Amino acid sequence: MPANKIVMTGTAGAYGASLLFALKEAEIRERFLPEFVKGLEATSQIQVENIDDFLSEQESFTVPIGKRGVLGAFFEMGKKLKVGFDIFQEAIPLSQEVIEMCEKYDINPYRLEDRGNYLIVTSSSEDLCARFQEAGIQATVVGVQRPDKEKRIIIDAEEVTYLQRQQELELEKL
């Protein structure tokens, strides 16, 4: 029996980046081009309004991505389902604007607050992604369930780390 896959909607950290922009607007406008700011605003506006409209019997679990970002949502999923998984960090969608803002302020974009996006455990990832994409919402396979309880983050082909509970919120670092 093939392992369930984990699908993420949207892009990581978009909502948190909009909060960061609100906190540091003058500094960001001074440092970045107007096109960058427009891209940031557009990224944070794409959200799932009603998740139930997209789900079928193939989707066994859904968790919203919240204050602790996509990695925090993975942590909650593992705790509730008592399962392990591999997270493919390179597959987690990030906008260039979020990456650049996070680099400037030394914030982890994978732990940055988000809203309106979800992690969904499914046995039918291609169908689920297609349903979201038909509605204009990005959906990407970002992980797979494991038969054991290990929660691994696959950084790349040579680097693997393990998911740890996040102690502080990323924006509290500022």
From TrEMBL:
<dbReference type="InterPro" id="IPR011854">
    <property type="entry name" value="HypE"/>
</dbReference>
<dbReference type="InterPro" id="IPR010918">
    <property type="entry name" value="PurM-like_C_dom"/>
</dbReference>
<dbReference type="InterPro" id="IPR036676">
    <property type="entry name" value="PurM-like_C_sf"/>
</dbReference>
<protein>
    <submittedName>
        <fullName>AIR synthase-related protein</fullName>
    </submittedName>
</protein>
<dbReference type="Pfam" id="PF02769">
    <property type="entry name" value="AIRS_C"/>
</dbReference>
<feature type="domain" description="PurM-like C-terminal">
    <location>
        <begin position="65"/>
        <end position="154"/>
    </location>
</feature>
